[in-house]
Each structure stands twice: as structure tokens, then as C-alpha cells.
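From: lab user (bench 3)
To: helpdesk
Subject: output format question, protein + nicotinamide-adenine-dinucleotide

Hello, I'm new to running complex predictions and I'm not sure whether the block I got back is the full result or only part of it. Here's what I submitted:
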Amino acid sequence: MQTIAHWLDGKTSTGSSTATAPVTNPATGVVTGQVALASSADVRTVVEAAVAAFPAWRDASLAKRTQVLFRFRELLNERKQELAAIITGEHGKVLADALGEVTRGLEVVEFACGIPHLLKGAYTENASTKVDIFSVRQPLGPVAIISPFNFPAMVPMWFFPVAIAAGNTVVLKPSEKDPSSSLWLAELWQEAGLPDGVFNVVQGDKVAVDELLENPAIKAVSFVGSTPIARYVYEHATASGKRVQALGGAKNHMVVLPDADLDLAADAAVNAGFGSAGERCMAISALVAVGSIADDLVSRIAERAKTIRTGDGARGADMGPLVTAAHRDKVASYIAAGESSGATVVLDGRAVAADGAADGFWLGPTVLDHVTTDMSVYTDEIFGPVLSVVRVDSYDEALALINANPYGNGTALFTNDGGAARRFHNEVEVGMVGINVPIPVPMAYYSFGGWKNSLFGDSHVHGTDGVHFFTRTKAVTTRWLDPSHGGLNLGFPQNH
Ligand code: NAD
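Helpdesk reply: Thanks, we reran it on our side. This is the complete output you should expect:
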């Protein structure tokens, strides 16, 4: 049985701890490896590698850094199928979806290839007489990335291309549920010519996370995961004086107005509700049907959802299994809770006949209608293939629902009314908004991030926010020619 190890100084290491956790193929239920769980001492060793590599990488020219990034981009593009297969084998999402995840990560690498332009500072001549000022953006040092199971390649790639391009060194702590992508990416960096110690991986659980949050050598933490852990990471890492962006969970609403194209809306609801078995932070989980269209919309959604083939993601299914048996059981228990509190089960995924091994973690697409805001299927992030339909009478009621929700990651409005769309994107309290687009994940040159309990911290991810997060600004004031000899003056410096 393979051991999925740490990566530091350009090679794998199992560390000193003997603790491990099983890694499973969710489509078969078979344990495929054991991931090392780092002790605090193991984490410190990995951090030391990142500390040692920082001075030389910080001083590497932008030409050198971008050469490595361009090479990494080429290699990743050539070999993305390999990475997609690793993702499917440990996460369960279907191959096409895994490939889509890699492609969205690749976009961030491409964005980071333009780092020389993004790092340009400002210069002001003669701010005072013969006094010039310029500003530069400098890297922070070793930074930590702590990522969730649901995007084992893309989420780390939201951060590390920008962090590395800006001159930082990185310690990635992937999810222990699907850790192998991280090592594949580490080897690819090495092949691309990244100096050893710039990109490191520590495998582990809470023990590893806690050391990263407190280790004084780590200057910033980028976290993505559930809201309770995001809040914990934000509070603890900021208390240790670090810069932190901690992205949390979501409950994304899709509002369908009566004038919408119902076929478009039904397609979108099914794609965004059941893609990746609903295990996406931008998945649609609450469908808000406005006015008299609800019956028609629900039947169009159910018709489509019934045609989804649930099965082994490596064998061409539409939707794969859930990540673990425990998670599948938890999601199924939400369906039971919804049913017993009065929701109508229009389509029941618990009865799915999956095209895959008997021990796979299967749950088919589920549609619940007449869901009310006090039901746990509405209040909680389920993170599975369960679409809850909430019926309301007006746009204002739909908007009020979303704005009252503690999460604010993504939302979408389906309509043919430009005025309603304009009102919606202006009034809604959510970080990423789609108009007739159900999963509005911004391109790499915009920034990704939610509001409210979906993100703790000030910076969104990639785009200019990402560059700002991974650099700090220095302003330099200089006087070279004809210095004035004004003699002693203890007053606050003023320009003249
Ligand atoms: P999780 O919070 O369980 O784990 C995330 C990371 O935190 C993992 O690396 C894990 O090892 C670590 N961790 C878990 N428990 C911990 C603890 N008690 N102390 C310290 N560290 C701990 O999340 P998950 O189940 O892997 O991922 C799914 C969640 O991530 C969902 O809530 C989803 O919405 C969210 N997510 C959010 C975004 C976003 O952009 N906002 C993106 C992807 C996923």
C-alpha cells in the first residue's frame, strides 16, 4: 500500500510521525493509500525548508521566475489528464469535471505569468523639491495554504502560482481525503525548474494546521474549507500576527423570475446543483422559484435530473460518488430530515442504481420541493446532490431571503428583464453574482471570494487581490541632487 508523504527540499519524506489516515477511492470503497499525518515537529521541518529557500527565491529575477512559471504552465497543460485521473481516483468527481478543475487552476498560472506587470510600483518625481518617491511590492516570506477536499488541485492553484511568482515560498497542507494531487504538482514544479524548497507539501490534519497557524516563520495563511474551521483559522492565525484569508462554506441561491427562459433555468439548476455531486462551494443548493412558475420549473428540473447517470467517474458517468461513506450518510440524513419536516421529495437519490462498484459511496440527484426556511435542508450547507426548492411570491421576498442568509458566496438570477437584473446585482449581499449564469466563478484576472460567513479576511483570491495579499508595499522617499541644508528642524516633514 502506497504512503502519501510530505514534500520538502525537492523530495518526499514520511517525517518522524507514524500516524497515517486511509485514502479511499469513493467509486469503489477501496483504500488506495495511507497519507502521512505530520506531527508538529514534522511541520516545523517542512517550514524550515521554505524558510531556507526564501532569500534566493525572493532575489531571483522576474525573468527567471516567469521562465519557471511559463514552463510549469506548459507542462501542466500537456499532462493535465494525468492530474485529472488522480483527482477522480481520490475525490470521485467524473473525469471531465476533474479536467475542468485543472483548467480553471491553469488560468491562475497563466495570470501569474504576467507577474512583472502586476508587481510594478509607482514613481513620483518631485513630490517635494528634488525629492522623489517610489513604491515597490515585496514578497512576505514563507506562506501556508490549507485546502479542502473538493478541489484538490484548483484550490491550491488559486494561491500558489501568485504566491510563488511574487517571490514567496509555499507550504501546502492539502486535505487528507485526497492528498495525492499535491505531490504530483510538486514534482511538476521541480520539472519546471523551480528551486527546491520554494514549493513544499505537508500532509496532515488539525495537528499540522495548528502548527502552521502558530509557527512564527509563516507570514500568511490562505485557507479554504468549511465555515467553522475558516473562522477558527482566521482567529488563530491573525492572533499570531499573520495575514489571513479564510474562505468558508456556502448556501448558494438561484432565483428564477417568472419571465425567465424556464428551459435555460432548468438546465442551469441541474448542472449547478448536481455537478461534482453538489460538492462545490459554488453549487446551487437553494432554488428560489418566484410566482406561478414553480410547478412548471420543478417538473422541468425533475425530468432532466432523472436522466443523470450516477456512477464511476472514470467510466464516463455524469455524476460520481460522494467523497466518503460518512459524508454520503450525512447527506442522506438531510433528505430524511427534509422529508419528515414536510418537504416533498420529487426525486429521491437514496434509491439510485449507480453504474459502479457496490461499495461506492453513491447518492443520486435529489430534488426537494416546498422547502421552508426553518428546515435543516435550507439552513445548513449540505454539500451533496440535493436541490431544495423554496417558493416565494415576489422578487423582494427572494432578495430578502438571500440577504438574510449567513453565507454570501455565490448567487444567480434567471430573468429576461434587464432592470430586474440590474437591481439584483446592485442589491444582493453576495460576493459573486451570475445573471443567467448559475456558477459565476470569476476568471483568474478578477478575484474570487464570498461575503459574510463565506470569507473571513479582507482579500479575495487571485486577480489583483491575490497579488496584494502575497506582497507588501514599501514606499521609498529619496533625495539625491541639491539636498537642502535646512539645519535642525524637529517639526514633522512637510513638502515644499
Ligand atoms: P474542512 O473545513 O473539513 O477542511 C478544510 C481543511 O481544514 C482541510 O485541509 C482539513 O484538513 C483542515 N481541517 C479540518 N478540520 C480541522 C480542524 N478542526 N482544525 C484545523 N484544521 C482542520 O472542509 P472540507 O470538508 O475539506 O471542504 C468542504 C468545505 O469547503 C465546504 O464547506 C465548502 O463550501 C468549503 N469550500 C469553500 C470554498 C470557497 O471558495 N468559499 C471553496 C471550496 C470549498
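A quick orientation on your result: The chain has two domains: 2-248+454-476, 252-435. Let us know if anything else is unclear.
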